[in-house]
Design brief:
With 258 residues, the protein is an alpha+beta fold. It is built from ten helices and seven strands.
Amino acid sequence: MNARAALFDLYGDHLRSRGGKASVAALVRLLAPLEIAAPAVRTAVSRMVRQGWLDRARMPQGPGYVVTPKCVRRLDEAALRIYRAGTIKWHGRWHLIVLEPVRERARRERLRADLAFLGYAQLSETTWVGPRPSPELDPLLAHEGIRADRFEAVLDGDPRELVARAWDLEAIGRAYEQWLTDAQELVGGLPDGAPDAQVFAIRSRLLHGWRNFLFRDPGLPPELLPPGWPGEKARAFFEQKAARLMPSAAAFVDKELL
């Protein structure tokens, strides 16, 4: 787990509900159980400031950093997908976006990664499709200065054929199965009565592995998924273990924020 990813997880899973800010010293202490050194934390924080995810903030404990509105949108959108409750209703309509051509390669790659995170799949060089509109789409396009035409569309044909063409469900399913095997080993190695810092580290690694699926799994409705979809078994395991480990992890965070 690199420092930037760990900071996103930390702010999203713990600090967002505690005012969205922390001192530099606290951030260093909080990431220490993940074996992330102080220089790496400071470098990652500086990078997140340049990218508009964090702002500098003066705190009683010293210099600190607070989430920006852009970061709040990303964290809240991610939380809805990480801790999805119940079945997502789908009305058979797809969200289609057609972008203007993007010439710069770095900008194009960044846009591709961001749209995939929001649950869209690329159908052509400029056309993307998703099972539902993302509330982050407008801020993303505005930030990149890109114009897009948007449509709500009903597919003339079998939507499962579109899904098979747009997303590699077999690969995603295998990834869920591998994640579940690794996660069971990770959590199973946690001894009874483990200190809060160790529980925090295990839960953070569990969350980080699960969060990576936000870049791969668009959150398709159940009727478009294969029977026995392994993502559901993996989700049940994650939700159960994340909830069980949260009290000790939260106690560690509260202690280190003082």
